Amino acid sequence: MVGGAAKLGTRAGRASFLAFVAAVYGFLLLPLVIVVLASFNAGELLTFPPQGFSLRWYQHFFRSEPFMNSLFFSLWLAALAMVLSTLLGTTAALYVVRFAGRWRDAIRLLIVTPLLLPEILSAVALLFFFYGIGLGKTVTGLVIGHVLITLPFVFLAVSSVLYNFDTSLEEAARSLGANRFTTFRLVTLPLIKPGVISGSLLAFIVSFDLFAVSLLLKGIGRETLPIQLFDYVTWDFDPTAAAVSTVSIAITLVAVLLVDRMVGLRSLRF
Amino acid sequence: MDHPPLTLAPEPLAAAGTSAAGRGGRRLAAWRRPSRGLLLVLPTLLFLGCFLVAPYVNMLVMSFRNPSTTAVFAPGFTVGNYTKALADPYYLGVLAQTIALGALTTAICAIVGYPVAYHLARTRSRLRGLLYVGVLSPLLVGVVIRCYGWIILLANNGLINNAVKKFGGASHGLPLMYNSFGVGVGLVHVFLPFMILPILSAVQSVDLALEDAARSLGASRARTMLRIVIPLSLPGIQAGAILVFVLSISAYVIPILLGALKVKLMPTLVIQLLIDAFLWPFGAALAFILAATGGLIVYLFIHATGRLMRGLG
User: Fold this and answer.
1) Range of the structural domain that residue B282 is part of
2) How far is B88 from chain A (nearest CA, A)?
3) Whose C-alpha in B186, B282, B286, B311 is 20 to 30 A from the C-alpha of B215?
């Protein structure tokens, strides 16, 4: 910032501004930090001061069949939704950016619509619809719901990369005689890789944390981890839920670190 | 590091194959014809047609169905679901409370989020990347987990009340949860990043030279903020406000976990009617009433802020 006449008043103003900003960061991070701390606390509840370090809540978690089942089900569901929405989102982005004519804006709007509509509304719409066509409370219906919500994330990530790279590279490959497939494999794909990777990992994270869609579309006895956690937290405050949450945060963190390692965090777009 | 906008910001105009010249030009032009790549987008269009358009049309139809006590709906159509909901002071009260809490959440997010976004946009600190992750981090953690964190803090026998009882000597804890305060804290926490990120990219697009010019011409820091930076970053505030408002009036998990059904809001009511009472046509009508009200408010807001921005420009 400009130096200018540094008056005492502005310095105090600057300090209180920074203090305010720091307080907001504290507010944002506080519940997450608390959850992680609670999971390692020996006591039944997180009291102050903490009652010592313990892994017993993790033991609880890993021995709990409902929690472990829902963890693996969520991982499987998120992986499947990620693969499907990456295939659909990437091809759609290629079309919209490279080929679409006057329908470009309409198609783009349609694809990002699930992001603009409240998740709970889409979940209700799918609940009615699946009931009508016989997909109610099936895993297929649940997967479709997850793909619907995660698709826009892949689409946006890939299309923003596509907009930013030079089409003349593809044109050069084409005019030098490469066929369409070779051009795609050797030129386009390596260039859009950052968008595909960050988009698909974001899709994984979003699906892994998805709640409303899972709540309304899940089959009986097919709980995802957030739903299992929700049921538990509604009745029970013991730190098993904190251990589950911490493991879930760690899984997300691995996905974020993968993005950072492979393509850099800046490509993570919302 | 450029921070991408959270919104579906206008993409840069793509140079669509116009530079294709030379021998390959004609072939390339053909390659770029929309019909050529149609196969690429067909699966997605089919998918969205089947599982986005059709379900919403179906839900709209459902909201006009006759209610039934023995089946999901009875034959025939009616507007009775809408008139019943709109004539009932109870549902109107819940709707008003939902909108009010959403508006309050939006206002608080804007006031709290703006300084953070401005700081992040202008800071040259080495911690910048870390701060960006700090803003993003709540988005990457599931909403149930974030609410659980607040439960540990705000519950009657939670961390804050424990501390109050121990050190403050109060015999009763403070009512921090199971009321609109708890729900409000949860809403602001969960949706604040959606306010910060659009403002961040808006502030970044405000030329620093403008600020320097205002300062060197003698404007105070506050005056520079009020007359230059905030007006120029209004589009970011507008986008963030719309996002936060829409997300808060349709939030489901937060009111349940932090309000425990004591705070009556539309989304929780709709789900209750659908899942527990099985009133599908009526629930669908209520959902559309909420969506229409929210849409109308967003429209009026865009209109008002658009006029404000034009007035400034």
Assistant:
1) 89-312
2) 22
3) B311
Q: Which residues of B167-187 are buried (b: 16+ CB within 10 A; e: fewer)?
A: eeeeeebeebbbebbbbbbbb
The two structure tokens encoding residue B278: 């099985």
* Mean pLDDT estimate for chain B: 85
Whether residue B8 is predicted with pLDDT greater than 90 in this model: the reply is: no
CB contact B262 to A (< 8 Å): no
Q: Helix H segments across B141-265?
A: 143-154, 159-168, 180-204, 208-216, 221-224, 230-232, 234-249, 253-259
- Asked if B242 reaches chain A (Cβ–Cβ under 8 Å), the answer is no
Task: Assess B80–A contact: CB distance below 8 Å, yes or no.
Answer: no
> Best interface-test mutation with B: which of A8, A20, A24, A162 has the largest number of B CBs within 10 A?
A24
Lowest-confidence segment of A3-7, A42-46, B235-239, B255-259 by average pLDDT: A3-7
Tokens 């992986």 sit at which residue?
A79
Which of 8-37 (B) contact A at CB < 8 A? 8, 11-12, 14-17, 19-20, 22-24, 27-28, 31-34, 36-37
**Are B135 and A28 within 8 A, CB to CB?**
yes
Which tokens is A24 given? 């907001």
Residue A149's nearest CA partner among A198, A84, A93 is A84
- Let me know if residue B58 belongs to a domain: no
Number of domains forming the structure of chain B: 1
d(C-alpha A62, C-alpha A71), whole Å: 10
Paired tokens of A215: 């709540």
Query: How many Å apart are CA A143 and CA A149, to the nearest integer?
Result: 10
The closest alpha carbon to B242, from B187, B301, B167, B173, belongs to B301
What is the per-residue pLDDT for A7? 53
* Shortest Cα–Cα distance, A24 to chain B (Å): 7
Q: Flag whether B210 is in a domain.
A: yes
In a domain? residue B76: no
- For an interface test with B, the pick among A33, A87, A167, A265 (most B C-beta atoms closer than 10 Å) comes out as A167
Measured at the alpha carbon of residue A116, what is the angle toward residues A111 and A120, in degrees to the nearest 5?
110
pLDDT tens across the length of chain A (270 residues) = 444 444 556 778 888 999 999 999 999 999 999 999 989 988 876 665 677 888 989 999 999 999 999 999 999 999 999 999 999 999 999 998 888 778 888 999 999 999 889 999 999 999 999 999 999 889 999 999 999 999 999 999 998 888 877 778 888 888 888 888 888 888 888 888 888 998 999 999 999 999 999 999 998 878 999 999 999 988 877 889 999 999 999 998 898 888 878 877 666 654
Helix axes A240-263, B128-140, angle to 10 degrees: 130
Instruction: Report the CATH number that the domain containing residue B174 is assigned in CATH.
Output: 1.10.3720.10
Chains A and B form CB pairs within 8 A to the count of 279
pLDDT value for B130: 85
What is the sign, positive or negative, of the torsion defined by CA atoms of B279, B280, B282, B284? Answer: positive
Q: Which domains occur in chain A, in start order? A: 65-267 (1.10.3720.10)
Q: What is the DSSP string of A188-243?
A: IHHHHHHHHHHHHHHHHHHHHH--HHHHHHPPTT---HHHHHHHHHHH--STHHHH
What's the complex ipTM?
0.88
Question: Residue B20 pLDDT > 60, yes or no?
Answer: no
The answer to whether residue B39 is domain-embedded is: no
